[in-house]
Design goal:
Elements: E1 4-8, H1 14-28, E2 35-39, E3 42-55, E4 59-64, E5 68-88, E6 91-114, E7 120-138, H2 147-181, E8 187-189, E9 194-197, E10 205-206, E11 211-212, E12 218-221, E13 245-250, H3 251-263, E14 268-272, H4 278-287, H5 289-295, E15 304-310, E16 315-319, E17 322-335, E18 343-361, E19 364-378, H6 382-387, H7 392-411, E20 415-416, E21 423-433, E22 436-445, H8 449-456
Antiparallel strand pairs: 1-11, 1-13, 2-3, 3-5, 4-5, 5-6, 6-7, 8-9, 9-12, 10-11, 13-22, 14-15, 15-17, 16-17, 17-18, 18-19, 19-20, 21-22
Pfam family, one: LBP_BPI_CETP_C
GO molecular function: ceramide transfer activity; lipid binding; phosphatidic acid transfer activity; phosphatidylethanolamine transfer activity
Protein name: Phospholipid transfer protein
Length: about 475
């Protein structure tokens, strides 16, 4: 656990506003049935019931520990309009009725779980809705005559509306929101070499001020997807509460990425011909002139190459001062006889240490590396290690010009954090701790929840009838 640990806090009103707007849109689409009946000498038919306005002024969104997410509406109002057809004796009258429901109270609790695929899912919704009172105003020629029907009609309308609110919200959460959550990938490709597993390790944990989720957060080699790295990293701890979302990334998150690129064979390259800096080539010829002459004097003018191959997965270290990556590689100096296999002149070990700067923009996490320390020594003798000292500076320059850009070419593209289309991180801040990184951000909605759902799946119209 703790490989990739996001926590969600309600430190501002953005998510509450989006949730409230979504609830209002769902309730506005409630379909009310046609009402027919007889009261004394009155026969009536009520049709075209529409909710014209919702005023959820007293709404709140909060966490209920070990229960779920609570959306609570108190003492709000709903305005409706519907069409009447009334027959009294031989008088027939039609017209519109405007009605208002007051004292609207809705209490909804969402229970969140991890589904079988490791996705976040709304498992259950508990809903209680109540309308305290409702009143109607008739229009038309005989409007005042029908006023005594208002109490009867509004009682029936209040009963039906009470029966419609919770089913509408249940359907919105269990069908529409879950369908959107199903579009968020839990296992996806990063590039042509590696992928990442975002699946939840266990069910979300709800506290009084946060929703905590542990994602696997593990990269994998696409050609060896079952190869895994043992996790020895510390479990991240999030103590910040200033922003809406905090994402904690342990050393294992980065190590698994380096391990996957290593097994995919990315960390190896040949530096030859135009890739070889001229001053480095001249220095190599001078250093290994004797070896070439002993091998075959005819090879003095043959091309030289450097073969670099990382011999073990790079390791990440995160401290409060920043993040570093240690990489060890075998460097072979080769002479390339025309029409013949390459011949090794020397083998050396290269130890490098890089500073790694983590950044987040939108919902893409990226890493930029800079060379911090460099050292080479011979694999053949201590004497040769002394002879390699003049190569230190040009090899370091070659690293900065060739190897570091190669590393950054893969890491700067970044990896996308799984958020639904229409949601992005803003106001990001990165903090370094011992063993993990914490990224804080606020959520920005470029689309409303209903629009986000509609963009991922066709939302079928409500057809609630009786």
């Amino acid at each position: 656990a703790g490989l990739m640990k996001p926590s969600l806090y309600f430190c501002n009103k953005v998510l509450k506003f989006e949730t409230q707007k979504f609830v209002e849109e769902e309730l506005s689409n409630i379909n009310m049935p046609e009402m027919k009946g007889k009261e004394g000498r009155f026969q009536y038919t009520i049709t075209d019931v529409k909710i014209t306005e919702l005023n959820l002024t007293h709404a709140d969104l909060q966490f209920i520990p070990e229960v779920g997410l609570l959306f609570d509406v108190q003492n709000s109002s709903i305005t409706l309009s519907f069409h009447r057809r009334i027959l009294y004796w031989f008088f027939y009258d039609t017209g519109n009725i405007n009605a208002s429901a007051e004292g609207v109270n809705i209490n909804t609790i969402l229970n969140l779980i991890r589904d079988d695929d490791g996705r976040l899912k709304i498992n259950n919704i508990t809903c209680d809705a109540r309308i305290d009172k409702m009143k109607a105003q008739f229009s038309g020629t005989l409007g005042r005559v029908y006023d005594f029907l208002a109490s009867f009609l509004t009682s029936g309308m209040r009963f039906l509306l009470n029966q419609r609110i919770c089913p509408a919200l249940n359907h919105a959460a269990l069908v529409h929101v879950n369908s959107m959550l199903e579009t968020i990938p839990v296992r996806t490709e990063v590039d042509q070499y590696i992928g990442i597993d975002y699946s939840l390790i266990d069910d979300p944990v709800v506290t009084s001020r946060s929703l905590d989720m542990n994602f696997r957060g593990m990269f994998f080699d696409l050609s060896h997807q079952n190869d895994t790295l043992v996790n020895y990293a510390v479990d991240p701890v999030i103590r910040e509460y200033d922003r809406m979302v905090y994402l904690a990334l342990s050393e294992f998150f980065f190590d698994s990425g380096m391990f996957s690129y290593f097994t995919a064979g990315i960390f190896q390259m040949d530096i030859v011909n135009e890739k070889m800096p001229k001053d480095l080539e001249m220095l190599l010829r001078t250093t290994y002139f004797g070896a070439i002459m002993m091998l075959n004097p005819a090879l003095v003018e043959a091309p030289l190459s450097l073969q670099l191959a990382v011999n073990s997965p790079p390791k990440t270290s995160i401290k409060t001062s920043g993040a570093t990556v240690v990489m060890t590689a075998i460097v072979k100096v080769m002479v390339l006889p025309p029409g013949q296999p390459p011949v090794q002149l020397s083998s050396m070990t290269m130890e490098t240490k890089f500073n790694a700067k983590v950044s987040m923009k939108g919902k893409r996490l990226a890493v930029h590396a800079d060379l911090r320390r460099f050292k080479i020594f011979s694999n053949q003798s201590a004497l040769e290690s002394l002879a390699l000292i003049p190569l230190q500076a040009p090899l370091k320059t070659m690293l900065q010009m060739s190897v570091v850009p190669l590393i950054n070419n893969w890491t700067k593209r970044g990896v996308q954090i799984p958020l639904a289309d229409g949601m992005d991180f803003i106001e990001e801040v990165v903090e370094y701790h011992n063993g993990f990184i914490v990224i804080g951000a606020n959520l920005h909605f470029s689309k409303g929840l209903r629009e986000m759902i509609a963009g991922n799946t066709e939302m079928e119209p409500e057809t609630n009838t009786v």
